[in-house]
Amino acid sequence: MVSTIRSEPRTFNRLTGRDTVTDTIGLLTQARLVRINRATDELEPWLAESWTVSAGGFSYILKLRRGLTFSDNALFTSADVVFTFKAVYDPKVGSPLAESLRIGGQPLQVSAPDESTVVITFPSRFGPGLRLLDGLPILPRHRLEPALEQGTFADAWGLTTPLSEIAGLGPFVLAEYQAGQRLVFARNPHYWRTDAAGIQLPYLERLTLEIVPDQNAELLRLQTGQTDFGQSEVRSEDYATLKRAADAGRIQLLDLGVGLDPDSLWFNLNPTSKGADPKRPWLQRVELRRAIAHAVDRRAFAETVFLGAAVPVHGPITPGNALWYDPDLPQHDFDLGAAARLLAEMGLADRDGDGVLEDAAGAPARFTMITQKGNTSLERGAAFVREDLKKIGLVVDVVPLDVGALVDRVERGAYEAVYFRFLTTNLDPALNLDLWLSSGGFHVWNPRQATPATEWERRIDELMKQQVVTLDGAKRKELFTEAQRIFASELPIIHFAAPRVYFAMSARVLNATPVLLRPAVLWNPDALAVKRPAGAGN
Amino acid sequence: MLRYFARRLAFAALLVFVVSSGALLLTRLAPGDFASELFGAGATPQTIAEERARYGLNQPILQQYAGWLRRAARLDLGMSLMYRQPVRDLVQQRAANTALLAVTALLLATLVGLPLGVVSGSSGRGVTSTAIRSASLVLLSLPSLLMALLLVLIAARTGWFPIGGMTSIDAADAGWIAWARDLLWHLPVPALALALPIAATLERLQAQATAEALQEPFVIAAFARGVPRRRLIWRGLLRVAIRPVAAIYGLVLAGLLSGSFVVEIVTSWPGLGKLMYEALRARDLYLVAGCAAAGSIFLAVGSLLSDLALAAADPRLRSE
Fold first, then answer.
1. Strand, coil or helix: what is A13?
2. Cα separation of A391 and A376, whole Å?
3. Which of A120, A156, A385, A491 is 20 to 30 A from A240 in CA distance terms?
């Protein structure tokens, strides 16, 4: 089986790598204590075969599978789990996973009463429970402990490390790395999982990740049968081509439903930031955001920007996230009259009859919106928003920037408005607190507030904090729906459409269950198989 | 002659210095940096600041540049921020791949472009010269990106050649002869994408130079003395007419490098262009500077070779 990735890995160590390729390598070569089945969203036993929760809901006692060995045949024990947690929280390691494994800024406490038992104590009750551990691969202590002790763990398992030194509990081992070309993974003969018939997994003897930076070239390779699938969904503009190939039976084209990542337009709501203009306070008014939400025709937006392969959305949680989506939240339907009234309430009026609104001082109602250069749907979306807002007298200057420059502007608060699309990494809102809490770094419109700047942000903070410590699922949903309701009314981020996600893979791929989260197929690598060519023996 | 080449060598060294310094400084001065690129939106300023300190990106620009210069003087181009490997090792490995592609493309372009230029320049306004000229104009008007995509598409439709990569998955295990054969099978698409526009440039220059040389008095005299036309054109005339072509060989090499940047990305050729693209995306400034230095070395070597070719073709330069 051959898949493609768009860039080189930066390390083979998932605890220190931040890039998606390193994450994919981790999924292939390492294993976690528990796994979220991305197709069903159920939590599954993985290296831990069972667990019990203490009465207070703070501690989990995990029983590890016995007799498992790493790919180098060394025995897996609870000491490896304790070591992994020690490494992830070590400040010298600077692991990108460390923050996501803290609750309220506090680390989890991990102990190992015996070789096959691990006790994990949370600093407080935590609604998602062990789902938190889905992203943490358990690493071999016998291989990496010296690096951790010497303070060199951050550089361990780099790209020049001999591959024989890398060991894991995943279905594959990294057999070959040809810089700039490919990564070849071979079956891990010591892998511990078997299928229902008792056959040892993985089914594949070899899996190759070809490095193809250009998406057009990636598409062509798929069409010609040189690769089996890529990591990203089908672009709207490629759908028709792939549909023809699917109709001819050369590929499988799957509709995964509505995507998790709607486009996002937000204004800089931090009054003290570099981008805030004291002469134009109307840029931070909720009436402006509501007017924009009314002024953009979402149906036409979906038709034009995503060539019809999208659905209108009114909030950050799309129908793709079925558990947490609520269709009854307040919506700002297309209504130019309502938009005009809201703008008039703010004192914006066309004072000189040129079709552009002016504020009380006579300055035109104009703002700059930055977006990501080179992303075709974002560039089309920004142009669509600009044209629709022109109809209500607002002038938008769209400035496409490289993603690095865009992030830099957002980080420094040096912008007026941003049009962007975030990638959702977790379905559970309690694992995305950085967005919802006013103290969060991902609370993009006004991040890292010492105390909530507004009453509605204070209320969302309260609801989310309560949601996180609630163990009852129905109650958690109720609290989150209320937080979404406030969000939909205040519109700190305006959403227009979520694309439908299509995924293409070659006709010979078997047992794949593509999902909306990335990587779409390789999240479940041990089940993958390929159809043998006709006439091939067993 | 020696002084002339010493001067050219000094110019080459200056070129490498200016290009790599410029690349480093421009990458450093552009908005954003490796740390902000690494974390994306949402990271705390403290986290980003720690990462900057870890990589020395928090130093003032002049201090950073001076440090890099000191190391570069000892041929140490620093560590890649992205790969945590010495830049020199990364660049060496990829430069060899780009050199292979560039030399193949240059050979192809020269072997195709020069003879066709002589033919079209010496055959007046006949069908052959019109056909060659038209083909050259079409190839000249196609940007490298389009040419690469077109060839990739042809390869995909026909299945004659692989549409990307440098070797097949199993090539390394099959012995070096099979590996070399596999490499040669992967070369045509990227090499032609690079070579065809250059062949067209060379053809146009050579055609014009040949046509002009045909008007020289010594050529007319040679014809008058009964020297066969074919011998005169392919032996006597070529040496005179090749001078303007030899003079632009350095620039052709520069064109090859900028073209290879795009071609390597489209055809997944693991060369310098692809490495620099990744380095620019990640704002890995030491790697960007290293790639730029390698690119300018290519250019400098090209210029020197061009001067050598010119000196070989024009005795007046040898006596300078």
1. coil
2. 23
3. A385
Cβ pair B80, B87 in contact under 8 A: yes
Evaluate the CA torsion angle B284, A426, A39, A260 in order and state its sign. negative
CA distances from A326 to A314, A329, A477, A480 (A): 10, 6, 9, 10
Q: Mark which residues 139-168 of B lie under 8 Å from A by CB.
A: 149, 152-153, 156, 159, 162-167
Q: CB A250: neighbour CB atoms within 10 A? A: 16
Identify the CA nearest to A176 among candidates A143, A210, A142, A203: A210
Q: Report yes or no: A223 and A241 within 8 Å, Cβ to Cβ.
A: yes
Q: What is the dihedral of CA A104, A108, A109, A115, to 10 degrees?
A: 170
Q: Is the dihedral of CA A409, A412, A413, A419 positive or negative?
A: positive
State how far the Cα of A296 lies from the Cα of A339, in Å rounded to an integer.
10
Contact B41, A444 (CB under 8 A): yes
Query: Rounded CA gap, B168 and A150, in Å?
Result: 40
Q: Is B105 exposed, middle or buried (0-12, 13-18, 19+ CB in 10 A)?
A: buried
* Beta pairing class for A102-103 and A106-107: antiparallel
Please count the other Cβ atoms lying within 10 Å of the Cβ belonging to residue B254. Answer: 18
DSSP β-bridge partners for residue A311: A498
Q: Rounded distance, CA B254 to CA B259, Å?
A: 9
Antiparallel, parallel or unpaired: β A366-372 and A417-421 = parallel
**CB contact A363 to B (< 8 Å):** no
Return phi, psi of residue A526, to 5°: -75, -15
CA distance B82 to A7: 12
Chain A CB within 8 Å of residue B270 CB:
yes
Query: What is the chain B residue with the closest CA to A220?
Result: B156
CA nearest B116: which of B104, B107, B128?
A: B128
Inter-chain CB proximity A7 and B164 less than 8 Å: no
A261: its two tokens: 């990542």
Got the DSSP string for B97-108?
HHHHHHHHHHHH
pTM: predicted TM-score of the whole model, two decimal places: 0.83
Query: Which ipTM score applies to this complex?
Result: 0.72
Residue A135 near residue A35 (C-beta atoms within 8 A): no
Q: pLDDT in tens for each of the 320 residues of chain B?
A: 677 778 878 888 888 889 989 998 988 888 777 877 776 655 666 677 777 777 778 888 888 889 888 988 888 888 888 888 889 989 988 889 998 998 899 899 989 998 898 888 888 778 888 899 899 999 988 877 888 888 988 888 888 888 888 888 877 777 888 888 899 999 999 999 999 988 998 899 888 888 888 888 888 888 888 888 788 778 777 777 777 777 777 777 777 777 788 888 888 889 888 888 888 888 888 999 999 998 888 888 877 777 777 777 666 665 55
- In whole angstroms, give the CA distance from residue A469 to residue A50: 23
Q: Which tokens is A297 given?
A: 């025709």
Instruction: Give yes or no for B36 touching A (CB within 8 A).
Output: yes
Q: Which of B199, B154, B157, B164 is nearest to B185 (CA)?
A: B164
Residues of chain B found within 8 Å of residue A181, distances taken between Cβ atoms? 165-167, 268, 270
> How many angstroms separate the CA atoms of A250 and A508, rounded?
9
